[in-house]
Amino acid sequence: MKSFPIFILLLLCFYESHAQTNDVWQITYLRKNNGKVPPNQDPIIVLASASGTSVSSEKTIKGETKPPFEISFVDRTDNSLYQIAFFANGKTLMTQDSKALAEQKIELLSDTQVILGYTCKKATTVVNSNRIDLWYTEELKIKGAPSALGQNLGLVLKMVRNGNSETEAVKIEKNTPWAAKNQLPQPHPQRVDALTYKDELWKSRFIQLPVFSHQIINFSDSVHAANEVVRFAHGTVIAKKVKFPSVGAASNVFLELSQYSNGDAYDRTGSVFMIPTQRKVSFLDALQKSVKELPIYENGNGKQYQGVVQTPDYLPVLELMRFFTPFGVRQYNYLQLKNKTWADSTYYRQDISDLLPAYNGQEVWVAVFIGNYDKGGHKVSLNFSVHPNERPTAKQQSRIVPLFNTTNVMEMAGQEYGTMFNNEKGLQVTFDVPEGAKNLKLRYITTGHGGWGNGDEFVPKANTISVDGRQIFTITPWRADCGSYRLVNPASGNFNNGLSSSDLSRSNWCPGTVTNPIWIELGNLPAGKHTLQVHIPQGLPEGGSFSAWNVSGALMGEW
């Protein structure tokens, strides 16, 4: 009889221990920035037990998170970290890391703090130059954290990054209805290596639109090209129709271009542009037939310039990117210099989100021009990366209207160079401002050309913009950083004074770079017709050499 109470006591202890082993604790965390809690955030949810710990969010557990999203799970039996990604197409991937948690280098400190009634100890570490302080408790006899960091310390109730960004527990519960979620998905998702997992997850967060892949741009009568790609102007212009997805007005779009020499050794002007087709005459007419299809601009200097300014029946091309090829990258990499390792190609990536209204949800012609007379020419690849964002924007819709473009992208088919600035009138264009239009700007790209010592390529020249006879903007476009791009210029000429030609400063461009647009505020222009003028003191010809300016401008605003 005396042994009965002892038996009962041992049995109760067994059941209590077994229950604790199966208990699942639910910890809810909120984020703070500089002491303030951002509104409408999705709380982090950690489910922790003796067998494992999962990290997700409230919306994810409720099934309200739009893919792609991911959750983490720590298997306490072998201390492995699993990351699981869920994609919009229904695909699920998983990666396992058996060393990540064990290899964390965390310093334990003597500081203590009480959080939600539990005494917490402090630990600290540095991740990518960020100081992370961790406050953890051992009183609950479980391990967990709102991220992978600190999972082996105990239960982390607060993380502080660089002293101003906090993630702190606001609620601790036990055996909630969500406890059953504390496990790996069943059946187990496809398992991949960590790099494949990260790459697949990253790519799923945006839209990639491939346009050209290793397309040749050279001087040739050949019209051969890949499917849906057409070649114009003796092969120096390639074009293709592209259907853009419809995304929110606050989305980000990047143009990505890579190129390398396929024979041409020189630095050349390049342009990526769209061809508007909504008016009676289109630049596409000239590409398909003849440059004679384009309207003529004259300013009294005796020359005729084809298709450079808008008219009631015509819109010039809308320039997306101005770029410059370097001296012979890849093709001439055999020209060795000590301690110089040449690049394999040039890569250009530019944000063109400001032009989104011109192509959002539309099918448009996209073209690339590289001016050259070489049979080998250049090879280019181009794609757009679209990063959707559904943030609300202003009620009025943004608009883009190309006003002028003097870059003679049909140079090899007879289009005149932009030499109209040798006349006081320079370049003039008339445009309409609709009723109620506001926030008007000019997106302006400018580069000077004339490749000898006194040519405008090497002489700073002021660009002056006037509207209705009133000067509104002046800039002297110049690049003094060209030496930074020496490693993409293997075929650059070298001078007796130790300089390379690619080192020389130029009128807003360098061999192997992109020329950035300039945004010019146009002020409060009333509805009706206005005249814009571009004036540049263009240099005089010397012998057979002359200067020219490639300028493009698009009217931007809300109406």
Layout of helices and strands, plus pairs?
Blueprint lengths: L2 H20 L2 E9 L10 E5 L3 E6 H5 L6 E7 L4 E7 L5 E6 L9 E9 L2 E10 L2 E8 L17 E7 L3 E10 L15 E2 L2 H10 L3 E11 L12 E3 L4 E7 L8 E10 L7 E7 L7 H6 L7 E2 L7 E2 L11 E7 L21 E6 L11 E8 L7 E10 L10 E8 L21 E7 L4 E12 L13 E5 L2 E6 L38 E2 L2 E4 L6 E8 L12 E11 L1
Parallel strand pairs: 6-12
Antiparallel strand pairs: 1-2, 1-11, 2-3, 3-4, 4-5, 5-6, 7-8, 8-9, 9-10, 10-11, 13-23, 14-15, 15-22, 16-21, 16-23, 17-20, 17-22, 18-19, 20-29, 24-32, 25-31, 26-30, 26-32, 27-28, 27-31
Characterization of the model:
The structure is a single chain. The protein has 2 domains: 21-193, outer membrane lipoprotein receptor (LolB), chain A; 205-558, Sandwich (Jelly Rolls). Helices cover 7% and strands 40% of the residues. A hairpin with a 3-residue loop joins strand 2 and strand 3 (52-57). Mean pLDDT is 94; it is low at 7-19. It is mainly beta and 559 residues long. The radius of gyration is 32 Å and the shape is elongated. The chain has 4 helices and 32 strands. The strands form 6 sheets. It has a 12-stranded mixed beta sheet with strand order 7-8-9-10-11-1-2-3-4-5-6-12. The protein has a 6-stranded antiparallel beta sheet with strand order 14-15-22-17-20-29. The termini are far apart.
